[in-house]
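Record type: monomer structure entry
Structure origin: computed from sequence
Chain ID: A
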Amino acid sequence: MNYKMLCSDLDGTLLATKSDVSATAIAEIRRIKDRMKVVLVSARMPKAMYYIQRDLGILNEPIICYNGAYILHGGKTLSSTLIPMHLVNSINDLAKAFEIALGLYYKHEWYVPGDSERVQKEIKYTKSAPVFQGTRAVLNDFEKRDIGAHKIMLMGTKEGTDGIFPELQKTVGTAVHLYRSNDTLIEIAPKSISKLSAIGSILAEDDSFSDVIAFGDNYNDLEMLQKVGCGVAVENARPEVKAVADHVTLANTEDGVAHFIKKNLFI
């Protein structure tokens, strides 16, 4: 198997733990990185990805953040797509009705209304820190700056997220992507982008999706794994993701991505 670009999701896929890439994965990526582009593709914010890029030795490559809403190459912005403020405000109104907190992301900025166990987990896992500020104040600031959000994270109880998800589908589902990260988290991204569209935007002129191998585990990886030349799901992936993948490798905790690379790429 020889491809021109390898794209990998992070959480639940490339990362063997909640926050770090393993020595095995580092060795395998470093083995192949001079023969193909290696691009990280995640829902994370940039500073929660840079340290992984550094460990892998691929700081010279583009990075796809916020499920494709923000693409960077070095210090240069290649693409930026925002959720407009009228939708952000509508989502906030609905969240308040279900007593769900909003995490708001813009470029390198992350805002949460207060501390919680969920926020502390996010800090620990992503090695990033938020600004603690009331949601209304953040939204007012966004409006003054004439910006929007690259990503919205809804953080609540299982009951709250179960309740709000169908309401979000009805009210804003045609305008944004809605992803259930787990029982208590919902990620919201601009409708016009995806991990796949982001990959397409950084392909060389003479390359196509058939030149790409990609790894993933969750709903936001479905389209990417379906449309690239080779889609690989880790064993711990959602059943729907494994169903569309060309291959299924070991679980992320067993270094599934590194295992597949070692067995199949440039051997």
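Annotation 1: The CA atoms of residues 236 and 251 lie 5 Å apart.
Annotation 2: The longest strand covers residues 176-182.
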